[in-house]
Amino acid sequence: MMNTGSAPLKRQNLAEEVADRLQELIFSGKYTTGQRLPTEPELMQQFGVGRSSIREAVKILANKGLVKVQQGLGTFVISQIGGGEPLGQRLQRADFEELNEVRLLLEVKIAERAAIHRNNKDIEKMKGFLKKRFTTATANELEPCIQADINFHTAIAEASKNEIMLDLYRTVATHLKASFVARYSNTDSFVESQSLHDALLQSIVDKDAKKALLWATKISTQSK
């Protein structure tokens, strides 16, 4: 069992487990770009595994573009991003402005596609969430209002019939919800933007992609 200070992963391949733990340390900033990792003996002691597991773990990280082995000098961190980082984990490191910008960009394109591809079931779902958004906003029920707003835009994403956009929007919105609750003290801004959302829904009902794009852009501009 590896001595890492946290619950061990139930995995047969110790090298993959070590690589995951080292990757977490790199992403968290424990080891920064340009910094040398501990020596093989130090890593063996830290994780409680053999030399072969450490070497294989380093190869995994090197293949992800996170570290580089320099013969005679050691293993150095060359990136704290890496192509192998799960999206959810990357979003946890993102700040509010980054996440919100991605959300707004997605909402604009999603609205345009939804106006083209939506069906009657999609429309009914959107109407229900938008009504919930209005009632909770006027009652100053902040968290239910935020959830209704997210549900409304998620329903639009579903109507876009683009599974990748839908997955991206759901993931980003999930990470943003807590930030919204912390940033807003009341529902005033949701009340103010209700008419824009009503217009957006109507354009999707009318299958008017240009107007859907227009209203989604206006909502995006107001939300910045």
Please explain how this structure is put together.
- The longest helix has 22 residues, at 96-117.
- The protein is 69% helix and 4% strand.
- It contains eleven helices and two strands, in the order H-H-H-E-E-H-H-H-H-H-H-H-H.
- The protein has a two-stranded antiparallel sheet with strand order 1-2.
- With 224 residues, it is mainly alpha-helical.
- The protein is elongated and about 65 Å long.
- The protein has two domains: 11-77, Arc Repressor Mutant, subunit A (Orthogonal Bundle), CATH 1.10.10.10; 87-222, GntR ligand-binding domain-like (Four Helix Bundle (Hemerythrin (Met), subunit A)).
- A hairpin with a 3-residue loop joins strand 1 (67-70) and strand 2 (74-77).
- Helix 5 runs antiparallel to helix 11 (209-223).
- Mean pLDDT is 88; it is low at 1-12.
Largest sheet: 2 strands, antiparallel
- Ranges where pLDDT stays below 50 over 5 or more residues in a row are 1-12
Order of helices and strands: HHHEEHHHHHHHH
> What is the residue-averaged pLDDT?
88
Shape: elongated
Biggest sheet: strand arrangement? 1-2
Distance between the termini: 49 Å
Task: Work out the strand percent.
Answer: under 5%
CATH class annotation of the largest domain? Mainly Alpha
Task: Count every beta strand, where a strand is a DSSP E run of 2 or more residues.
Answer: 2
Specify the CATH homologous superfamily of the largest domain. Answer: GntR ligand-binding domain-like
Domain module tally: 2
Helix content: 55-70%
The number of helical elements comes to 11
CATH architecture of the largest domain: Up-down Bundle
Domain HTH gntR-type: 12-80
GO molecular function: DNA binding; DNA-binding transcription factor activity
Keywords: DNA-binding, Transcription, Transcription regulation
Pfam families: FCD, GntR
